[in-house]
Amino acid sequence: MVWWFFCPNITYGEDALSDLETIKGKKAFIVTDKIINGLGLAEKVCRILTQKQWEAAIWDGVEPDPKISTVKSAAEAIKRFGADWIIAVGGGSVMDTAKAAWVLYEKPDVELHALTPFDELGLRTKAKLICIPTTTGTGSEATKAIVIRDDETGRKFATINPELTPDIALLDPEFVVGLPKNLTAYTGMDALTHAIEGYISVWKNDFSDGCSLQSVRMIFEWLPKSVENLSDLEAREKMLIAACLAGMSFGNSQAALAHSLGHSMGSVLRTHHGMSVGMALPYTVEFNCIDGGDAAKQYSELARMIGVSGKGDKKTSINFAQAIRDFMKTVGCPASFKEAGIKKKEFNAGLEKMVEFAMMDTSLTMNPRNTDSEEIRKLYQYMFEGKTVDF
Ligand SMILES: NC(=O)c1ccc[n+]([C@@H]2O[C@H](COP(=O)([O-])OP(=O)(O)OC[C@H]3O[C@@H](n4cnc5c(N)ncnc54)[C@H](O)[C@@H]3O)[C@@H](O)[C@H]2O)c1
Ligand SMILES: [Fe+2]
């Protein structure tokens, strides 16, 4: 069977930004958000290009979990400017907006909702894409995925197409050193969830496995260091690499149940993506390993690599779920809705919508264990209380 592995060219390390000087082009459109713009990070990129006589513009209209209307505004602005490079400077929200706006800039008739992995878009006739992440989690700089929010329903939907893989991912620790503690922890848990789900997804393959193994190893070592000392540049660089590797893994194998649960929490309760999928992760490990089959074997391989043991694959996987909970405590990520400060009333009011959205989420189809709405509801209820999954 023929299979493909997609990833961008990657430039990384201290002063990786200077690599921009080697790029050929004339007009760069920089997509970012107001916070990142306020920190001067987009301006850093702009300065390098204008010194080389490029024309460059900064557009900072992205909001967390971007809506289709935001993507359309970005595409309009790119069209008015006429870019030959689009440069995303930001977290997953900015990078996904830039990727989706790039599609509409090149192909205005594309319906983002209806985009499939098999469509031949014919991108790169007008522009190419560089992603410079300012968070250490989503790995969007390395994936062919976008996650956008529907304006009317509020539902976050993920879609993939190989042509959406950025041309260049530029990983410079200076761009993440200012990331606050909670976002460092949350986005780090997003990366861990990508690495683990990429390893158990039904589309897992030898290439994605390699990326997952190294990413899991690095996150367990370097995320606590990043959180403990926010200005530790080495830890920041290692987490940038680990998140990118995790993106390369799940981008080529796909995410699973924790992402279905997390996307739907984010849609309904507006919780941060990394916090949501991270919270769901240990519950999904327990749920997927229950029959002691392939998933249990795969989780236990990861568990043993980080020094967690147990009698048999199922018990090792259950111990792995507990090790993930302990890790979340160390880095400061809530392990239940209660710990996240979500009140029972708010949870109950959103529960049925979360179940409905989770059942519609594409990541569900990649999960090794089939599930239904009743089990999804039960999983959310266990996640509210912080109960170990026993079904
Ligand atoms: N396309 C993919 O492959 C993929 C993968 C995972 C997640 N996602 C999506 O990415 C989004 C989440 O992205 P995220 O977790 O990077 O967060 P984000 O981009 O939504 O940013 C969260 C907040 O952090 C701020 N921020 C970002 N960088 C900062 C910095 N260096 N210093 C200070 N503040 C900073 C932002 O301004 C924003 O307010 C979600 O919509 C999620 O669904 C996409
Ligand atoms: Fe994610």
What do these coordinates show?
The relative contact order is 0.11. Strand 4, helix 4 and strand 5 form a beta-alpha-beta unit. This protein folds into 2 domains: 167 residues, Rossmann fold; 205 residues, Dehydroquinate synthase-like, alpha domain (Up-down Bundle), CATH 1.20.1090.10. Strands 1-8-5-4-2-3 form a 6-stranded parallel sheet, with helices on both faces. Helix 3 crosses helix 4. It is of the alpha/beta class and 391 residues long. The radius of gyration is 20 Å and the shape is globular. The model has no long low-confidence stretch (mean pLDDT 97). Bound molecules: nicotinamide-adenine-dinucleotide (NAD) and fe (ii) ion. The site of nicotinamide-adenine-dinucleotide (NAD) has 32 residues, from helix 1, helix 4, strand 6, helix 5 and helix 9.
Can you describe this structure in just a few lines?
With 391 residues, this protein is of the alpha/beta class.
Strand content: 5-15%
User: How are the strands of the biggest sheet laid out side by side?
Assistant: 1-8-5-4-2-3
Ligands in the structure? nicotinamide-adenine-dinucleotide, fe (ii) ion
The largest pleated sheet is described as:
6 strands, parallel
